[in-house]
TrEMBL record:
It comes from the Bacteria. The keyword Transmembrane applies. Residues 365-393 have a biased composition (Low complexity). This is Energy-coupling factor transport system permease protein. The lineage of its organism: Bacteria, Bacillati, Actinomycetota, Actinomycetes, Propionibacteriales. Residues 360-393 are annotated as: Disordered. The chain crosses the membrane at residues 35-52, 64-87, 155-175, 236-259, 265-284. Keywords: Membrane, Transmembrane, Transmembrane helix.
Amino acid sequence: MRAVHRPTLPRTLHPGAWWLWALGLATAASRTTNPLLLVLVLAVAGYVVAARRTSAPWARSYAAFLRLGLVVIAIRVVFQSLFGAAVTGRTVLFTLPQVPLPGWLEGIRIGGAVTAEALASAAYDGLRLAAVLACIGAANALANPKRLLAAMPGALYELGVAVVVAMTFAPQLVGDAARARAARRLRGRADRGLRSLRATAVPLLEGALERSLALAAAMDSRGYGRVGQVPRATRVVTAALVLGGLVGLCAGAYGLLAADGGPLFGAPMLLAGGAAAVAGLALAGRRAVRTRYRPDPWALPEWLVAASGVAVAAAFTWAASTGVPDVVVSASPLTLPGLPVLPTAGALLGLLPAWCSPPPQPVIGPSDPSGPSGPSGSSTRSGSSDPSSEVLA
């Protein structure tokens, strides 16, 4: 018999793969203070987001995380200028009026000389935190929160509901801000500056919070969080395994990080604690009473995306632990950092999801209230504006 060719339906990547990839990039960013490597990580995350994000409302939140990162850098530099940390230098840029402090506050100053080395160190630390925030924003923009909730293990299902409700706050806030700015422009009012921010900040926060609460109520009305009955002995064993596993994980992590612990104590405890925690979560999953409609597959694209994030994190971690030059740079003396080969190659591996993941599919219907936008910027909107229909339908 001749085989019948059945065309495969388009699908989106598993949200867990996006989060593993983003957490790998965030781990890599936390292991370096080299501004060139941090900018490279930001560029990798931004390119993948631009290539694989959809038209869903949560996909527009990445720019907000980038702006938040700029605010973090500015705050870090301003605090360094005003209060001055332990970083000193010889290149004095300017001098602020210094406030005299009592002797018991020795080591703390307000004002005084501001050096280029101190500002560079503050900018490096702020850029590192901004890169971590951008990686988390990339995961928030690429992963569907509804599908992420459906993929949560049964034991963590109630926690997943709370996390997804919290995750809807930022994308809805970004969408409300865009609509508020458009409305102010149509009314002939300024949509930028402090006056516009003061006029729209409170309504935006209130509207996003009301939507999140309405989503929580809709979830509760649809039976989210419903649990089944299990024997008392099973509950006791589950609690003992989970608590013992957490204690084992903490002890193993301490053994690996402590100077006198050694890997002979830390690694076995970490593995035993992880195994006990997984067994406890598997038993606790029996309490979750739910069904899955069209569960997301975990195939080769998911493995490649997750492996790329793990590879980036492994390259940066190994380079930082072995003392590869220019991974952790110092601002004193102030020199131009280099670009090490291994972390650079590892960061470029993070671009793999831009090609190995399925192309973005248009989100049409209640799950995307904005709908697909045409060339003129108009959107076709179907379904109700109820947040429960946007995320749960």
